[in-house]
Fold this sequence. Notes:
Layout: E1 6-10, H1 17-25, E2 29-34, E3 47-50, H2 56-66, E4 70-72, H3 80-90, H4 98-105, H5 107-116, E5 124-127, H6 130-135, E6 144-148, E7 158-160, H7 166-174, E8 182-186, E9 195-202, E10 205-208, E11 213-216, E12 226-231, H8 237-253, E13 259-267, E14 273-279, H9 287-295, H10 299-307, E15 323-329, E16 335-342, E17 350-355, E18 362-363, E19 374-380, H11 383-390, H12 393-396, E20 397-401
Helix pairs in contact: 1-10, 2-3, 3-4, 4-5
Amino acid sequence: MANQKRLLLxxxxxYLLPVxxxxxxxxxxxxxxxxxPDNIAHQYSDEYCNVSIIDKDAVLQAxxxxxxxxxxxxxxxxxxxxxxxxxxxxxxxxxxSYESVSILQNKxxxxxxxxxxxxxxPTAKGYHSIEDALAEKDIFHWPVIVKPTDSxxxxxVTRVDDPAKLEESIRYALSFSHSDEFIIEDFLEKKGHSSxxxxxxxxxxxxxxxFSAQRFDDRAGNPYTxxxxxxxxxxxxxxxxxxxxxxxxxxxxxxxxxxxxxxETRECTDGKNYIMELSxxxxxxxxxxxxxYATGVDLIExxxxxxxGMPVIDIEQKPYNGCWAEIILHSSKAGxxxxxxxxxxxxxxxxxxxxxxxxxDAVGDFSGANEAIGTLVLQFDSQQRLVEVLENQEKFxxxxxx
Length: 402
């Protein structure tokens, strides 16, 4: 097709499939890129490019040779800084400067930026040296959370209550870090459920903001890996308004442009509201697809349009159509998958069942988001019924092992 726009997509996970679908509907040629040719997204893109997405200069060279009109890292945290780097070098449409994106993508730099600009922020510090961190353990208000500065999907994250266990947790975090850097921060006691969901700005103005209730499985291999989400959130309305205002202030300070964002926020028992993470990418776990179900607003199409410089349309705040939930299907112990059981009494609430494995396949203990085996989308008439199902999930949905 003459003058067909070309979009380079970093990563290859299944979360890229709706992006490829949206691009094709817009007549855009898609090129998926990573160093794993067997990843599922490469079966659906128009072309595959075998380059590591954390090698910024290799991706830059590939983008030049492929003559792309845009670059995006959707639901793929390691590629976000690379996409901003390549966009800046080639003058492609971008969510913001490489420097601003680098601040957002590094947990240590992000916490420092928030503190310097008067945002609510826990005591936090990034380190490369285990010895330096151990020497400063008394600056934190224990317990603490230790995590890599540059990993996603809750990989490498632990809560530490005993300072004697700090070094062990640091070494675990470093095993998941590309940059050999980790962060220690105060553990914030949340009120209700924390929020992890997507939002969108156009020319720096926050046009769509959402808050969710993020839920966890205490029995899983990693109790910090999200196991379910629901909309509306449990965060009080006035605190949602304050957080939206602070998110807007943050976008202005960093001179962000047009982008989808995955944003984690928290209402805490200390009476304060916190922006925990803000990344200029779509979130994993199909969050933007859930928002499309719940509001009709298509953040995925908006992100694709922005990436290639097309006009972004129909991004506006809209109410939720009922109460929505997404269950991240998983097994809390390792074994062999047999089947998925759903109770008859909630089958009418199931909008979509997306199972990624078959009977006989091996499953892990949900020690990270990469061990999810599918998703279940549900709609309820009342928040009360939604809470009843999600807080007693084992009564309604079971992953049966052979």
